[in-house]
Amino acid sequence: MTIILGYTVFLLIMNDLLPITGNRLPLLNVVFSVSLALMVASLLETIIITKILCRSNHSAVPYWVKILVLKYLARLVCISQKLTNQGTDTHSTTTEASSALFISHDAMKLVEPAKDTEAQDRTRLADPAVEELKKLSQHLLAIRSHAEEHLPDNRADDEWTQIAHIIDRFLFILYVLFVLFSIITFTFFWVMWSSQ
Q1: Is the model more confident about 155 or about 72?
Q2: Residue scoring higher pLDDT (160 or 107)
Q3: What are 157-196's pLDDT values in tens digits?
Q4: What is the DSSP string of 21-58?
Q5: What span, in angstroms and rounded, lies between the C-alpha atoms of 80 and 71?
Q6: What is the Cβ-side half-sphere exposure of residue 107, based on CA atoms within 13 angstroms?
Q7: Residue 160 CB-density burial (10 A; 0-12 exposed, 13-18 middle, 19+ buried)
Q8: DSSP state, 18?
Q9: Cα angle at 16 between 12 and 20, to 5 degrees?
């Protein structure tokens, strides 16, 4: 906002310094006006992206926004589907990984060779340790389920963050295309008017 305010004061000063022409607007005035419009557009883009990121703390992503932004707009701005699905898959993979940590006693028996008598003797000796590990596993599962009940779901935050990144890239591409179009147009008019 400070930059835009300073630029507006600069435009007011330049308006008094530039010569007044009769038939057409000076090209320098148009360049200054377009630069001001680009700065305002950049500020609005920042406000929109910040609003989307702050909204992630309050609500889930609507279904139509998921389809429109995460599916179609992501393809348009060349963000792969793998990256957009990464946030939704993160929760399921962490759940699977944490549940895979708890290996049951029966699964451990499958790994041990059944033919080896020494291994069977060691298993009999380790029964108190195995029972203790089973109890520990049950306690950890109870702690995990209790924590999952009280911790918020991060999938909505991840989806809002992805939506903000996709919209940010889309608006940046529009911004760059508009800048390139403006430069080409200014150059064309400058060459045409200087040749006259």
Answers
A1: 72
A2: 160
A3: 788 888 889 999 999 999 999 999 999 998 998 888 778 7
A4: -SSS--HHHHHHHHHHHHHHHHHHHHHHHHHHHHHTTT
A5: 9
A6: 6
A7: buried
A8: S
A9: 125
- In the prediction, which pLDDT does 98 show? 46
Residue 86, both tokens? 């990464």
Overall size of the chain counted in residues = 196
Cα–Cα distance for residue pair 182/21, rounded to 1 Å: 22
Q: Quote the CA–CA distance of 14 and 27 in Å, as a whole number.
A: 13
Question: CB neighbours of 56 closer than 8 A, spacing ≥ 6?
Answer: 156, 157, 159, 160, 161, 164
Q: What is the CA radius of gyration of the chain?
A: 31
- Say how far apart CA 17 and CA 9 lie, in whole Å: 13
Which of 48, 50, 51 has the alpha carbon at shortest distance from 40?
A: 48
Q: Which helix (H) or strand (E) holds 101?
A: none
Nearest alpha-carbon partner for 196 in 31, 33, 23, 28: 23
Instruction: Find where tokens 């179609």 sit.
Output: 72
Whether 20 has a pLDDT exceeding 60, the answer reads yes
